[in-house]
Amino acid sequence: MARAGLNAARLTAAAAELADEVGLEQVTVSALARRFGVKDASIYSHVRSLRELRVRVALLGGAEMTERIAAAVAGRAGRDALVAFADAYRRYALDHPGRYAATQMRVAPEEAADTAGLRRSVELTHGMLRAYGLAEPDLTDAGRLLRAALHGYVHLEATGGFAHPRAVEESWARSLDALHVLLDNWPRRADGPAR
Amino acid sequence: MARAGLNAARLTAAAAELADEVGLEQVTVSALARRFGVKDASIYSHVRSLRELRVRVALLGGAEMTERIAAAVAGRAGRDALVAFADAYRRYALDHPGRYAATQMRVAPEEAADTAGLRRSVELTHGMLRAYGLAEPDLTDAGRLLRAALHGYVHLEATGGFAHPRAVEESWARSLDALHVLLDNWPRRADGPAR
DNA sequence: GCGAGGAACCTAGCACCCCTAGGTACGCGG
DNA sequence: CCGCGTACCTAGGGGTGCTAGGTTCCTCGC
């Protein structure tokens, strides 16, 4: 009997593929063991728990995603950067729904062990927003709204929330137009009374 | 032994409470049976499957949510309506995280059996958007972006996605300001080239 | 008041899941 | 070629969803 040659990295990769194919919920120790032709218990030599496995998928997904976004945004600014950012974000989430879902997990800082990646990702968006002339605290507020809009859009789209016939691609493009306008006209504090 | 007096409605209500307390994932037939002091199998006299139970929670949550939003929006228009809508949306989601999570399920039309509620909810948002002078297809596009922003915001907030210290309440208020501005200046097709 | 029928709930059991404890066997460095 | 660590195993406990096939209780028409 040849050994399967398991290790944490291979397990994580397989779990990520599985998550994209059948959904993060269906990523199971048993399924993974089946895929490697191995007993469930063997998995636990390389990974502490199912939870840890999913966290690894989340970290993998997060890293891949910020990498893609960074590549897309590189050398662009303003509207171009926004569109590149958003398109890369959406594309990754749609191409890798399981990994993307994993990134949405609440993961404790000590589990992450990868604060650098996280910091890089927020720097990415802050850099982009600064190009719109935003500074703190508007930076944080606009960043939150932007993240919310992107995540919400992709999440709703992925879970079938957009039943209406109008093509999503078209709506997406228009929404990016709108977000660009929004960031260009972000209501600063001095501009008016706070609602 | 007194009968527990189960029925689908009571089960749904209990499942909804449970979902809000411990999360939708933890809503389990066994847990529900425990709560009623009854064996698992008894549940299946009233509900076909765990899936059906969760769908019922989703429908309940959806109905409650649109009702609250409708009450909040009633008699308002423009910015007031937007803020009332968004606040009611967010409040419901934060007060009832389990029910809210359930509403995010992909549910087939024949499972819903409640197209009226759904239609009412889209009419609610469309009515609000029309007050901003929007018409199809901008109505659909703006509606999608608005839903995405609200859902994304609430979802990120609920899953601990906003680690940054700046108070979420403040960010939220600013984001609503921004969304109002956005809807007021929605980039119509004629206004410029499509990116 | 009473039997029939249905509803409410049960026992028993399968399949699948996560995870632990304690082995066995393979292959590499000495 | 021999020890030893690592890769993988067997065995098993506990939780979960769900089904099949009872049994007991309540209600309702007579």
Structural overview:
The structure is a homodimer of 195-residue chains. The first copy, chain A, has ten helices and no strands. Chain A is an all-alpha fold. Chain A has a domain at 57-189: Orthogonal Bundle (Tetracycline Repressor, domain 2), CATH 1.10.357.10. In chain A, helix 8 packs across helix 9 and helix 9 runs antiparallel to helix 10 (168-184). Chain A binds a DNA duplex (30 and 30 nucleotides) through residues 1, 3-6, 28-30, 38-42, 44-46, 49-50. Chains A, B: It comes from Streptomonospora mangrovi. Chains A, B: GO terms for molecular function: DNA binding. Chains A, B: InterPro entries: Homeodomain-like_sf, HTH_TetR, MT1864/Rv1816-like_C, Tet_transcr_reg_TetR-rel_C_sf. Chains A, B: This is WHG domain-containing protein.
Key traits:
DNA-binding, WHG domain-containing protein (chains A, B), 195 residues, 0% strand, mainly alpha, Tetracycline Repressor, domain 2, HTH_TetR (chains A, B), homodimer, transcription (chains A, B)
